[in-house]
Structures are given as structure tokens and as C-alpha cells.
Amino acid sequence: MSRRIIVIGAVLFVLVVVGLAIPFIVKARLKAHVEGSKNNLRELALFAAHHTKPDPKNDSRKLATEIPAGTVALSGFPPEERLSWVVDVVPGLDQRRVNSAQLLSVIDRTKPWDADANQKAARTRLVVLLCPENTPEVPPDTPAITCYVGIGGLGANAATLPTESSRAGAMRYASPTSFERITDGLSQTLLFGETRNEFGPWLRGGYSTVRGVDDTSGALPLIGAGGQFGGYFPVTANFAMCDGGVRVFTPRVEPRVLYGLSTIAGKETDPVPGE
């Protein structure tokens, strides 16, 4: 009888300990996933922010002077049929997580993203493009997705605008964005953001990988479940800035703050909150 009591007591003790530990485990897991998503954004943004082009005065030297274009140029094809900015960022990704040489070897830059020649690459799952928390599931043998999109400016069609437009953002479909055009400063301009809303293939250009902050009447909430951005974590959304830094926003952020930060010449941008 006493042995049975001891066993029951031990089982109850273990259950109590487990019950007390679970909330801490869940909290620690969520914190780790938040940091994991931030690290993904940093990796993407740091390479994009240091995108280089040849120095016209010295062919052997390259300069970090621009944000890459939102799509790979392909004459006669609209943005949504072109390859995305990810193709130009792949060489700078962590080689322990992405075999960039192998991936690039199966990408044909002269063809649209959905061409047969590009489908092997399209189905390649890139961990750096996936938020570790609440990652969307996609059917097997279908194009792999991205949880992070480039910020095209202010308005649903902002990525089509020239840099001279007051609503243009850092990443536009047609061409790179010179640092000189980012007059608000690299640390005050959004480059990438998390989104669980209408996520799409990472290899596809257009809305799948570049989006403007939609400020039209009746648009979705800016941040949160079912919003334009976020949706992975309970009350926050992570964004990468053009200098490679990462900032966190909640649904409480005033829309005008994100509106200003989404453009390269917002001028009315409030100070960016800290992480």
C-alpha cells in the first residue's frame, strides 16, 4: 500500500513539474523562433544592402551603392512572370544552409520563373526564406515559398514607380535603387518584411516577392493575423531596414509611421522604435 502511495505521489509530482515547465518551454521556443526570423531577415538584408556593382573607375573593384532590383530583367515579360530578387541575393546567403552554386546552376535567367527549366530550382526549399514559427505548409512537388517580401513603397502598385516618385520604395521591379535616392537614410527605410498573407513562390517576381504598403481605404490591417504583414507571431511583425538592421512593430504602430518608412523619401517618418 505504501509503495502504491509513493508511486502515485511520484507521478503527481512529475505531472506538476511538467505542467509548470510547459509555459516556460513554450515561451522559450517562441523567443527562439522570433530570433530565428530576425536572423533570416538580417541575412537577406545585409547582402541586399551590400549589393555591389563594378566601379567605373576601377574594373577590379566593386562598390556597394544600391539595393538590387525586385526582379531579374527579362524583356517582354511582366514582373509576375520574371525571376525574383532572391536569385541575385542567393550568392550571399550562408553556404551552410544554401548551396548557392548548385542552386544557381539550375536557374535559367533568360526564361520566366515558371519555365520547365526553372522548376527544379523553384521547388527547392530555402530555410532562410521561411519563418520558423507557424511556417505555412505547401503541397509536395509544388514551388517552395517565401515568408519575406521586399517593400516596394507606398501603395499596392508602388514597385512599378520610378525612384522620383514620392511613393517609391527601396525595392522596385524594373531596376536597382541607388543609395543616393534613399534620402531618408538606410536605417529609416524598410527593405523586407514578414508576411503570411497570400504568400507565394520565392522564385516568382511580382506580388509574390515584392509588395507595397497598401494605404487604400478598405485595405487589410497593416500588422497582425490576417494583416498585410506579420501573422507568424502573436502581436509583432519583423522588418529589415536598408542598412541591414531589423526592427519590430506591433499592431499599435500608427499607419503613418509605416507609410513613411516604406518610401525612400518619406520626410515625415517618425523615429523608428527599437527592437
Overall description:
With 275 residues, this protein is of the alpha+beta class. The protein has one domain. Helices cover 25% and strands 15% of the residues. It has five helices and nine strands. The protein has helices spanning 2-49, 86-89, 100-105, 119-122, 255-261, and strands at 52-55, 58-64, 66-67, 148-154, 177-178, 190-194, 210-213, 237-241, 246-249. The strands form three sheets. A five-stranded mixed beta sheet has the order 7-4-6-8-9. The N and C termini lie far apart (57 Å). 39% of the residues are buried.
Task: Summarize, please.
By secondary structure, this protein is an alpha+beta fold. It is built from five helices and nine strands.
Strand order of the largest sheet: 7-4-6-8-9
Computed Rg: 22 Å
Number of distinct helices: 5
* Terminal-residue CA separation: 57 Å
Report the sheet with the most strands, covering strand number, pairing sense and barrel closure: 5 strands, mixed
**What is the number of domains?**
1
The topology string of helices and strands comes to HEEEHHHEEEEEEH
Q: Label the overall shape.
A: globular
Percent helix range = 25-40%
Number of strands: 9
